Write the structure tokens for this entry.
Amino acid sequence: MFNIEDQSNRYQIIWDLGRRCSYACSYCPPHRNNKWSPFIDYKTLCTTVDKVAEYALLYDQFRRQPAKKKLSFTGGEPTVHPDFFKFLRYVKNTYPFFSRGLTTNGWFGSSVLDKVLSLTTGGTLSYHCESTDKQKKQVIDNAIVLRDKFKVNVMFHKDYFWECVDVCEKLEKNSVDFVPRIIGDDHPDDKKSIELGYTQVYSDDQMQWFRDYWKMKGQNVTESGNTQQGLGRPCCGGRCFKVDSVDSYFLPDTNFLGWSCMVNWYFLFLNSEADRVWTHQTCGVNLDGEVAPLGKISEFDDILDKLSDSLYTKRVPMITCPKTFCGCGMCITKSKDNVTAMFNRHTIDELGFEKVSQKSSNYLTDVTTKKVFHELDSATENRV
């Protein structure tokens, strides 16, 4: 494997509106979920999306062709935010070029369902086995109603594994697209994540089910190991990408250490509660090649100025991957040896790049959302 090339021409802004959630899944870590985080006010949301639109359109000026632009809202659970649908109306009316995605646990009644149908353009429901039977029935019922626009990530809890298999079969019978998801996207060396249940270790029979499923889909898989790393990874967004010119939705290996990567041309990640902007939710590598934010949401003008300076001088940074494990984001354009040809296919003729020197990465010290929230929560506890 030497080259991966995006086929969607989609610029996706993943926006975490806050950690507050209607569920409390045991495998969802504290930097992703709680019951008390404050809601970001409506005015701040609108001001932020104004800056995001400016950022996305700035990149468009230097693409071979304008990207399809998508705002994808996540959390926590976005639908519990009291101004979420009011904000979606603002986005729909002010920035019609943005499609409006939603990642949700799908546990809501008919009133919210109607708003999801009318104000979003698609997204993902997640099926969680630790919820009640009533909640799970509601989620499946909603998934069937939303099947023309939404797919389902079935979160395969090892203790409810065969229930998850049954759910996949039920979804398939009802023509609902789904992805069987292994739980755990932390660094493979993070043993604490396994101890706390955020990364799950599966039995041999369970791993064989995953391998058989993806082989049936025509994908190559890893044949050893009992976590995500022991299988490989599907594109969670369902993107089709080229692997050495062959269509794929799945990679058996996601170690891209030293590769040239164009992640910043395809993704942006905002976390409103943390007041931070990263290139990507799980990658997090900035334009200096470090695992750290691009800057703060409250100082978005500085992020815009830095990007503008590099684009208008016609020499943009080309990220050199410092990591040995890629989560979501594996599907976008990158090359082991020579990214120039692919870069030129996606950008205007006048634009060049400068390869950023490879930096070191350590999951214990990288400035990720996990680290930022650990520091913020610790500071809050100390004040109390």
Q: What stands out?
A: The chain has one domain: 3-383. The chain has a mean pLDDT of 93.
